[in-house]
C-alpha cells in the first residue's frame, strides 16, 4: 500500500523538525503553537492538555495538541521543568498577505540553560549553562547566564586522563542548570565519574569539534571583536577557551540572535578564593537547609537582606567565593562600618534601591530582542533613580560605595540619563506587553505616526456618530452599528423594521430576529480606519524597535551599572544584618590566629526558642591550641560550636561583620568539614563510605593554612575501628608538615583526650553540663579540659525514650562499666617508652587500648616514620595493629 503524501504544511513541519530532533517543536499557526506526532503525545501528557488528531477521518491520523501563543510561556516553563527543550517556530510572513504556505522558522530554542523569560527564572539565582573541557594537560569550565550576560571561566592543570575533583567540585558549586560535554564523555569509561557527579542534571552532549581550541578561539574573537583574548587575561587558558567556545556555539545554535550583553569573559583562579567544597557547603548549610532543602535556616537566609534581585544573586556569589586577599576583605569591611555609622543615609539608599528593577536581566532580555514596552518602562524608571542614588553614595569614603573606582562613572550616568529621557519621550506609560497591536508610542513623538493616529481616531468617531445620524435619518429605533471580525462594521436592524431600511443598505446576513447591512460609505470609512490602524501598528512597532536598538547599543553601560548597584546592595544588606544582630567588625591578623570572643552561631541563635543563646570564646593558634579536641554530652552544643567557628571565618573572609563580641581572625585557604550530616545513598555510597571519602579528601588536601572541622569521625563503624581512625586522623593533622592544621575535633571517643598528653598542640575542651539527681542541665559553655561522660542515657530520656528501655540501658551500662573496671585491675603494669616524650601514666593508658600483644605492637609503632607515612598506609597499619591487639 503506497504511503499517503503529506500536505505541504506537514512537509514543512517535518523538514523543520528534522533539525530539532531533541526539542519539542512549537509550530506557530495563527494564535496557537501546535505540536504534532511524538512531540504532541509527550507534551500533552506533561502539560495535561487534550491530545487530538489532524485528519481525524484518515486511516493514519496525526496526533496533535496546541497551546495559545499568548499563554505559551507557562506551558514552556512546565516542559523545561520536566527536562524538555522547546524549539519555538514562528510565522515569518503576514499570513493574510501571503498566498499559499507561510514561511516559518525556528527563532530560538529554549533549554534549561538558555532561559530568558522572567516566569521561568528564579529572580534570586543565576541560571548557568556550563561547559567542561579537557585538553592534554589542563581541564577547564566556562559558564554563562544568558539572562544577565555573566560569563566566567577557570581551569586547572591535570595530566591524568580523569577530570580533577577540584574542577568537578567547582562545577557543582556553580550549580548549572544545564551542562555541555563533548560527545566522547557520553560512553567513555574514563569519564564515568563525571557522569556520576552530574547525575540528575541536564547534560547535553555536543560534537567534539565544538570544543576544538582553534574554532573555539575563533568564535570568542569574533564575538568580542578583538584580535586576541589578552585583554580578558584568557589568551593562554586553553581549556577555558575550549569550554567557552563550546558555550558560544551552543548559544548561536539555539538563540539565533545577537547577544550584545555578553561583552566579556571573566577568567578566575581558584587559588584566589577561600575554597569550601560542595559537601562542606551543604554540611554547613550555607545555601540550603539539609532537612528541608530550602533557604530557611541557612547562612544565606540570615545574611541576604538585599533589596534588588541583582544584589540577591551577588551575595550568593560572595558567600560561595570568600576572599583571601586581605585588602579586598578590608575594603568590604570598611564599607559596612561606614554604612552602619550612617543609619539615615543607609535607609535612604535602601529606599532608592527598592525602586531599581533587575537591570542585569532587563539588559539581557532587551539585548536579545525580547524586551517589550513594559521592560523599557521598568528600565526607564530604574535609570531615573540613578542620579539621586549616586548622589547619596558620593557621601561615603569607601570606593566601593562612592563609585570612584567605577570606571567612567560620569559618562555612564549622563548616557543612561539620556536613554531614560528617550524612553520617557517615546514609550507610553500605559503600553502593554503586546508589540504588534499599537498603543506603544506617545503622541507627539513622531509626526508621521500622529497623522495615522488622527485618521484612525477620526474614523472611529465618525462610526460612533453614524449610529445616531442613521437612526435619525431612517427613524428606525432598533438600528445599531456593530463590529465583528467577519464583516467589520455593519448596521443591524430588527426583523420587524427591516422592511423600512433605505435602498442603499446592502444586506449581508439574516439572523432569526435581525437583518445585517453595510453601506458603501461605511465601508470606505472602515477601510481608512483599518488601513490607518494597520499602518499605525506597523509604524509603532518600527519606532519601538529603533528605541530598543538604541538601548542595546548601551547594554554594556547598563550591565556595568547593574554590577555596581548589586555590590552596593550586598554591602548595605550586610550592614543591616550587622546592626540588627550586633555583629562586630573582625580584625584580620597575619599571626595565624583565630581568636573569637563571645562568638555565636549566626543561624542557631535565630532559631532556638525558649533558651538564650550562650556565646562561647575560642582561640586557635599554631602554638598550643591548634587542635581543639571537644568532648561533652550529646546535645551539649559541640557541633554548634564547631560550625559557628567555620561560619565566622567564612563571613569574615567574604567581608562581613561577624556574630561575636570581638574577633581577630587570620585568612585561611580552605575550610574542610566532616560533620556527618549528609548521606549519599542515592549515588550508591554507604554512610561510612561517605564519611571516609570526606576524611580522605581532608587528609589529601588540607594545608597548614586550612581550617578543619571534624565532628565525630569514625562513628559510622565499630567502636574500635572508628576510634582508631579518629585517633590516627587527629595525629596526622597535628603532624602535617611538622606544622599542623587548625582543627576542631568533636568526639564521643573519650580515649582521644589522652592525645593532649602526647601532642604539643592538642588541647582538650568540653561543653559543660550540670548534673542533678538523674538529670542534666546543658550549660552550653565551652570550657577547658576533657570529659569522659556522654550522658547518652539522660539525653535519650529527655528525648522521650520510655522508662522501661532507659532502665534496661542503665543496667547494661553499669554491667559494662563494672566489667571494664575488673579487667583493668587484672592488667599487669606495663613498661613503655614514647619517642621524645617522658613516659607517664597516661601513656600506659594509651597502650591499654591494644591488649596483650604489647611488645610486637610496640615494635611496629617504633618503626613508623610519621613524616613520611601516607594516610592509606596509616589506616592499613592501624588495621594490622588492631588485629594484633585483638589476638
Ligand atoms: N551556645 C548555645 N546556646 C544555646 N543553645 C545551644 C547552644 N549550642 C547548642 N545549642 C542548642 O543545642 C542543640 C544541640 O546542639 P549540638 O547539635 O551542637 O549538640 P552536640 O553536642 O553536637 O550533640 P551530639 O553529640 O548529640 O551530636 C542545638 O540544636 C541548639 O538548639
Describe the structure.
The structure is a single chain. This protein is α/β, with parallel strands linked by helices. The chain folds into 5 domains: 8-110, MutS, DNA mismatch repair protein, domain I, CATH 3.40.1170.10; 122-272, Nucleotidyltransferase, domain 5; 276-428 and 549-580, MutS, DNA mismatch repair protein, Chain A, domain 3 (Orthogonal Bundle); 447-542, MutS, DNA mismatch repair protein, Chain A, domain 3 (Orthogonal Bundle), CATH 1.10.1420; 587-886, P-loop containing nucleotide triphosphate hydrolases (Rossmann fold, 3-Layer(aba) Sandwich). Strands 13-23-24-25-21-26-27 form a 7-stranded mixed beta sheet, sandwiched between helices. It has a 6-stranded mixed beta sheet with strand order 3-4-2-1-5-6, sandwiched between helices. Strands 11-10-7-8-9-12 form a 6-stranded mixed beta sheet. 39% of the residues are buried. It holds the Pfam family MutS_V. Residues 706-722 form the DNA mismatch repair proteins mutS family domain. It comes from Desulfobacula toluolica (strain DSM 7467 / Tol2). Residues 820-850 are annotated as: Disordered.
Q: Low-confidence parts lasting 5 or more residues at pLDDT below 50?
A: 828-851
The CATH class of the largest domain is identified as Alpha Beta
The Cα radius of gyration reads 36 Å
Number of strands: 27
Q: So, the CATH homologous superfamily of the largest domain?
A: P-loop containing nucleotide triphosphate hydrolases
CATH architecture classification name of the largest domain: 3-Layer(aba) Sandwich
* Residues in β-strands, percent: 15-25%
Shape: elongated
Oligomer: single chain
Largest sheet: 7 strands, mixed
The third-level CATH topology of the largest domain is: Rossmann fold
Helix content: 40-55%
Bound compounds: adenosine-5'-triphosphate
**Termini separation (Å)?**
83 Å
Region (Disordered): 820-850
Protein name: DNA mismatch repair protein MutS
Biased composition (Basic and acidic residues): 820-834
InterPro entries: DNA_mismatch_repair_MutS, DNA_mismatch_repair_MutS-lik_N, DNA_mismatch_repair_MutS/MSH, DNA_mismatch_repair_MutS_C, DNA_mismatch_repair_MutS_clamp, DNA_mismatch_repair_MutS_core, DNA_mismatch_repair_MutS_N, DNA_mismatch_repair_MutS_sf
